[in-house]
Amino acid sequence: MSVDPGKSLLMRRQVVLSGLGGQGVLFLSRLLAEAAIAGGFPVLTSETHGMAQRGGVVVSHLKVGGFDSPLVRPGRADILLALKEENVPLHREFLADGAALIVNAPAPIDAGPRVWVYTVDADALALSAGTPHAVNLILLGFALARIGGGNAGGFFCTAGEIREALSRRQGAAGGRLAASLSALDLGIAHGT
Amino acid sequence: MSDRILMQGNDAIARGLVEAGCAVAASYPGTPASEILSSIDRWRKKCGATMHVEWAVNEKVALEIAYTAAISGLRAAVIMKQVGLNVASDPLLSAAYLGVTAGFLVVSADDPGPHSSQTEQDSRLLAMMAKVPVLDPASPAQAMALAATGIGLSEAFGVPVMLRPTTRVCHASQDVDAAPFRPPAREARFVKDPARWAATPVFRRKLHDRLAEKVVAIAAWPATAPIRVNPEVSPAKAVVASGVAFAHARELFGELGISDRIALYQVIQPYPLHTDFIGHLLETYTEILVLEESSPVIEMQIADRRRVRGRMTGAVPGTGELLPEIIERLLSRFAGLPVPVEVLAVQGGGRRPTLCPGCAHRSSFYAIRKAAPAGIYPSDIGCYTLGINLGAVDTVLCMGAAVSQAAGFDYAHRLSGKQVDIIATIGDSTFYHAGIPPLIDAVVQGARFVLVILDNGTTAMTGNQPTPGTGIGAGGEVTTAVDMEGLVRACGVRFCRVANPDRLPEFVALLKEALAYARESGVAVVIARQPCAMVTLAAGGKEPGAIVITGECNGCRHCVDRFECPALIFDEASNRVRIEEMICTGCGVCVYVCPAGAIRQELAGEKRS
Ligand code: SF4
Ligand code: SF4
């Protein structure tokens, strides 16, 4: 795979992923980064490690399409994926005007003016599906279905490209892949 | 054929080292550098290189091992975090004098912020003190390139070279061009030269002269000279940046549209700063803004104080991480543009980190407070530092200090005629790293305290690297396991007992026994042995769902406030505690903790369906 400069000019996306230690924030950001590379985009991510992973707040920045700095500045993110509702006040400041906030929450939330808010109760879905560790993929599936991929305002990749990235990552692990794909589909089904 | 793959900065550094033919790599884990060594092991397996890769007992030992390979003709690297460099500083300063015969890279990762460190110290300052050149990458891709450059520089001048990435490079990921491996082959051959390798002070004096000459020559080495990003314009002002601060600045130069108004330079080698470059800056520009993390290493070397602005002049914040939003304000001001308003991060809020559900350290800390409610609790560096939440950690200084501080507390109070109960805690990895010499000292001096070694069989904080007690090497191979009990006894400790802290009542009784012994006779050691819950979970886990809260729960909050298992949730509406099944490991320790007996562990047969 090589970088396609033409595509990079068209698509520049800044995404912030936020959750608690153990929720799979880092897995999600790597998955998205690999999908971006497969799509021909340059990508930069920045992750939290260490203490924060012991149940504390974990945040990952993802910049797709020709950036130098690995960090997203406040007011610049196109998308904020919040795996935990309580993190929204902490990371809301990253969002640009008109950006999308996708939250794992049992009920609609108020995140202030000038952002699009989409909520889904990914915890409940994960528990009822018997995959408590797949909250991250359920939320991603939901987000992809709601705001789309490869279009203006949406992600830089489609749900299909995420499926491919998942298969490349977990293909060898057999059972893991099937569970991950069905979690993604569960999210997509709730977002369509 | 090359391929673009996602590489974490640490992965990229590892790849650069293996590609450069590094044959020996040693490390002690520490965030943000921890992933480098395991990654070296992965890459070496991938390309079939013959290497010695090890998790050393501490950074000083790691440096000495890698250094010795580099004076035996093999390229080598030692990897650590900035605090670890303090531990390794002793051999580093001497190694700089003696030099090397093959490339030797000292990777010391800094943590401006600091995100998971005791200090924000700048390893580049230590490089300057040691008189070794230091390279400062701005991205994962550049870190990979500079690992190889550093090995080359080291070999060209026969000095150790430091590579200093920061958290935002180590833990950033990027699409990196992964060319096929072509590691050069070398053979170890140590050429005896006692005047050099065993130099006495007379020779050291000469070696110091020679090192100073090398530094002058390195300050003219073309391969590491600063890079001008926008050479086509000739403005009056310049920004000089290094590390990730350069990456932020470069992106902002584009966004703010100031590339035609201000020159932008990247300094790759902050020490020694290229002599010609200093001259050029001072001849060409009326104002120079220096952006670097964390100390003014570059700024210090540009002599003209009237034209240079940076951390020393107060133009740039003197401490902390240079986030892009901070740099945006600095650049806007420097360029005479409107300065954006500061967006203040939300203060407070967010969950504080806590020990994992099912973590046996929680049981140990709970038991320690039960056994010695009025005690002093020195502790150390690791997951268990989080015991602070449970009120069972009073001091944290540096690796191994739990033991020396426990002894220090005893001596200090004894001088005032007091006897206090002291229970110190230290992890197994930390104990091997720096806990043994202070334990010997305490025994010899007749100190009186209880040392609890929290033995979870791994270096959990940094990603579960093996410890000397596990008998597993860096590549997963079986090695010799050190016998911790035997080691403790050999340090002269007479009271040494092993127990499972999850059996709370017995464990509290054992601690009381140890305290009684310590008061009379000296150091008592209790080894709290139970595997890390993260490891247990990864291996299939404990049985969840077997824990229930009965109607006897009266909402006293004892288990939530004093035991703090994240799987115990206080429900305001019902004024009762409930179990968060998503994360409960079923360890059953909370059963002992509830004073009302409201928490029950159902036997396998009576489990709810
Ligand atoms: S990682 Fe292991 S040692 Fe660290 S808090 Fe979790 S269970 Fe405890
Ligand atoms: S059994 Fe109790 S102490 Fe253990 S993880 Fe579950 S709630 Fe926490």
Description:
The complex is a heterodimer of chains A (192) and B (609). Chain A is an alpha/beta fold and 192 residues long. Chain A is built from seven helices and six strands, in the order H-E-H-E-E-E-H-E-E-H-H-H-H. Chain A has a six-stranded mixed beta sheet with strand order 2-3-1-4-5-6, with helices on one face. In chain A, strand 4, helix 3 (88-91) and strand 5 form a beta-alpha-beta unit. In chain A, helix 6 packs antiparallel against helix 7 (175-191). The longest helix of chain A is centred in the C-terminal third of the chain and has 17 residues, at 175-191. The N and C termini of chain A lie far apart (31 Å). The model of chain A has no long low-confidence stretch (mean pLDDT 90). With 609 residues, chain B is α/β, with parallel strands linked by helices. In chain B, 38% of the residues lie in helices and 16% in strands. In chain B, helix 3 (59-70) packs parallel to helix 4 (82-98), helix 14 packs across helix 18 (504-521) and helix 15 packs parallel to helix 16 (428-445). Chain B is globular and about 80 Å long. Strand 2 (43-46) of chain A pairs antiparallel with strand 8 of chain B. The structure holds iron/sulfur cluster (2 copies). The site of one iron/sulfur cluster (SF4) has 10 residues of chain B, from helix 19.
| Strands in their spatial order, largest beta sheet of chain A | 2-3-1-4-5-6
The unreliable regions of chain A are none
Indicate the low-confidence ranges of chain B by residue numbers. 605-609
Q: Helicity range of the residues of chain A?
A: 25-40%
The gross shape of chain B turns out to be: globular
Specify the biggest β-sheet of chain B: 6 strands, parallel
Bound molecules: iron/sulfur cluster
> Roughly what is the average pLDDT of chain A, rounded to an integer?
90
